[in-house]
Specification:
CATH topology of the domain at 243-307: Arc Repressor Mutant, subunit A
Distance between the termini: 57 Å
InterPro entries: DNA_glycosylase (IPR011257), Endonuclease-III-like_CS2 (IPR004036), Endonuclease3_FeS-loop_motif (IPR003651), Endouclease-III_FeS-bd_BS (IPR004035), HhH-GPD_domain (IPR003265), HhH_base_excis_C (IPR023170), HhH_motif (IPR000445), MIG/MutY (IPR044298)
CATH architecture of the domain at 243-307: Orthogonal Bundle
Structural class: mainly alpha
GO molecular function: 4 iron, 4 sulfur cluster binding; 8-oxo-7,8-dihydroguanine DNA N-glycosylase activity; adenine/guanine mispair binding; metal ion binding; oxidized purine DNA binding; purine-specific mismatch base pair DNA N-glycosylase activity
Shape: globular
Largest sheet: 2 strands, antiparallel
Number of strands: 2
Order of helices and strands: HHHHHHHHHHHHHHHEE
Catalytic activity: Hydrolyzes free adenine bases from 7,8-dihydro-8-oxoguanine:adenine mismatched double-stranded DNA, leaving an apurinic site
Radius of gyration: 22 Å
CATH class of the domain at 243-307: Mainly Alpha
CATH superfamily of the domain at 243-307: Winged helix-like DNA-binding domain superfamily/Winged helix DNA-binding domain
Family: Belongs to the Nth/MutY family.
Cofactor: [4Fe-4S] cluster
Number of helices: 15
Strand content: under 5%
Length: about 300
Amino acid sequence: MPVPETAVPPSVDVPRLHDAVLDWFAVHARDLPWRSPDCPPWGVLVSEIMLQQTPVVRVLPRWHAWLERWPTPADLAAAPTADVLTAWDRLGYPRRALRLQEAARAIVERHGGEVPADPSALRALPGIGEYTAAAVSSFAFGLPETVVDTNVRRVIARAVGGQALPGRSLTRAEMRRAHALMPEDPDRAQAWNAGVMELGALVCTARSPACERCPLADACAWVAAGSPPPEQAPRGQAWAGTDRQVRGAVMAAVREHGRVAGDGLRAVVVAGGRLGAHRPGDAQWERCVAGLLADGLLARDDDGAFAFPS
DNA sequence: AAAGCGGGGCT
DNA sequence: AGCCCAGCTTT
């Protein structure tokens, strides 16, 4: 039986990290609406879903419109799905919009219309994984959950692990380390979660970190090692000519035109210009449309015309 | 563990 | 032309 690797090296002064991050956060935290004391848990939940793989600046206007239109889970649960997909606009990954509505319906049915505080109950909702469950529980309800997103992973990988970037996927060892770094006091735990994320978003960024402005620079294992470059080259994300581009163009066309005749959809999509020079072949076109129908993102009416599902 | 899934802005 | 972003689900 091998000796388990210690989650945090003994050389790391954990209380000092806490003070540094909490002091920095108290001064530099952005004034985001879902952090307001007036923001209900539903607003936090909506923000977390929208922020999955989508930057804050793009989420802000959609979030405000969303909360104004559907101020409670019951409001979203009762909305036509077509309206939900249209309001999602161009945030990307529109399946998130479907799942958010499914989650709202589950909240109405299983939780009396109130967003649950328990991470397990949150995790059981559609579209809510390990991160989002912990984030809502911590940020909306102040429970001392361990919140680990891409920002937290990067800050810990550098400051404690001495690595330039974390690996491709979140490991159990990383979760253990993040858990070991949590402050005991619940209020400080909540601020730590938000503060480390904010530090990763504003200072300890992926591409060109501003170490001269970082409150952890003196204690950072990566800086101490001379800030070596990342060992693992990132996996490139292809876009032009992919199914994702074609699916996105179809969604954009339906969003803009509403209902599109079945034999005209392809022409509308190509004319939309979102595909650039790419022209999908028959096989790709059929695959993408069939996929959107199967995903519940697209529907056909009795005349065979395409539209968002009602 | 890896692949699929959107879209835009920045280097 | 890449790379990145408050991930989740399925294989």
